[in-house]
Target: F-box domain-containing protein
Amino acid sequence: MTNPSTDSDILKIEGKVLKDNMEAGSTSISLEILPDELVLNILDRFPTRKFSKRNNHLRTLCNFALTNRRFHRLAIPYIYRDIDDGGINIRKLVRSITNEPELGNHIRSIRWCVVDRNGRDDETWKTTSFKEEEDKDAEDDDDDKDDNQDESNSPATQDSDEDKFMKNMTKETLLMTLLAHSINLFDLCAVDDGGGDMDKYYDPDSPPSWFNFLCASVIDCSNRFQRLQKLNISLCGMRLEHIHAVIQLPVLRWIGLAQVVHLTPELGWEPEKCEKGVSLA
Model:
């Protein structure tokens, strides 16, 4: 191994060692003695996006964010930076952002599949996915039973009105809520293609609400998405003219369209796929 020649190299080496200790649950190193630069270097090494309900990297970040106020301040932007619908406890994450809108300022990227990846309809998804999140929470709590053995009987664990409201939210509603709080969004990838079922294509005159929300920010000049530079969407049943408003987003540099359809007098609905996207720079 070569000797580190710069402070940056030293930070990378120390950061890797400490990161390994953090993932192993080691408490031998006090976070308080580390400079902010080193802590941020460590956080940069955590891949927070993963299409799995068990993202141990993100879980580690969340746990250490509770260690002390300073680390909480440094870790929060990384916890909320990248969001996908396959992440852990997505409803709780959306609820946190709803209760503390400033958390949405940290969101830079959203990956979302409005149609459930397992082919479940909205009602089935709401029921089963909420149960999956509860099971995941119960599994995590098993790691610390001694500290939480009386918690299950606590009134605080009963479903509140807010919990019931979140439980009834569809994937499209959750995405809408995220977009409403993501004023610094840089990259959006959304799939809303009816699950490949022609019967589920949207009425071409009625685009999905989340897409209308994007367009409205241009039409009403609210400039909500002033930093959105990359848009990758899959929308079956959409007319190309509906894209016109979106490409007027102020700093949009790249747009990818999959299964967007256009209407021709001779052929009627015909899919048009753009695999690589279009650069608007």
Observations:
- Residues 7-79 form one domain.
- The first strand starts at residue 82 and ends at 84.
